[in-house]
Write a structure and sequence with these properties.
Blueprint (H helix, E strand, L loop, with lengths): L1 E10 L2 E11 L4 E5 L6 H9 L4 E10 L2 E2 L5 H7 L1 E3 L7 E5 H15 L7 H15 L9 E2 L5 H15 L3 E5 L7 H14 L5 E6 L12 E6 L2 E6 L1 H10 L13
Parallel strand pairs: 3-10, 3-11, 6-9, 9-10
Antiparallel strand pairs: 1-2, 1-4, 4-5, 7-8, 11-12
Helix pairs in contact: 2-3, 5-6
The chain binds adenosine-5'-diphosphate and magnesium ion (MG) (2 copies).
Amino acid sequence: MLKIENLHVQVAGKDILKGLSLDLQPGQVHAIMGPNGAGKSTLGNILAGREGYEVSEGTVEFEGRNLLELEPEERAAAGVFLAFQYPVEIAGVNNTYFLRAALNAQRKARGETELDSMQFLKLVREKLAVLHLKDELLHRGVNEGFSGGEKKRNEIFQLALLEPKLAILDETDSGLDIDALKAVADGVNALRSPDRAFLVITHYQRLLDYIKPDVVHVLADGRIVESGGPELALELEAHGYEWLKDRVAPES
Ligand code: ADP
Ligand code: MG
Ligand code: MG
């Protein structure tokens, strides 16, 4: 589904990703862990198509297409969801309205019919039920005054509505509280399916107490230095990232 080969990325002229390879199959959840500054968010941003990132080498294929030459909107329409895609607060814009516009933009780009408000509400009710969420966030402005946990719940709700094939979640290093972590984990677990893959980027092991990944990768200094099963996350928890320092491959 997602095949990254020997990816080299520069930010502001500095090498950040230095030959990263990753192969993500449908149905799988892969976790990317790593110390601060390793390039985790850079990986998320390059997959999102954010500006300011320069690919100097390597390829990224999503379902056989060159992801790197698609615009962010085209990536979304192709089924790539990036959790930080709509992090902004949009005061005065009703969240329900916003979500319908986002979904319909994607449907239109795929040549599908747009949903009218009745059809959309039906879908909203279904998704709220799947996620055991209340509709309270829907009637507010987009992310307006949302707490960290509410933003996360809203993000997961976007994910449920947009039904992506590949969801990339960058949990950033800025301490999510336990409610926010659980909101993310519950959402991921409820939305796991054989044809959907997740790339969960996290600095902390604790998220993986709630999400059981199929594969854990450790990203250090722009490369994946170790991959393994869920037990790898526990080893990191026990020994810290220092433990992997000597495994960082020399510059090639
Ligand atoms: P992580 O998410 O693993 O903590 P990042 O991908 O955010 O790491 O950052 C990796 C490195 O790239 C860091 O050294 C960071 O300072 C640098 N970096 C990231 N974004 C920029 C930018 N816009 N300009 C300059 N340096 C950047
Ligand atoms: Mg960081
Ligand atoms: Mg980061």
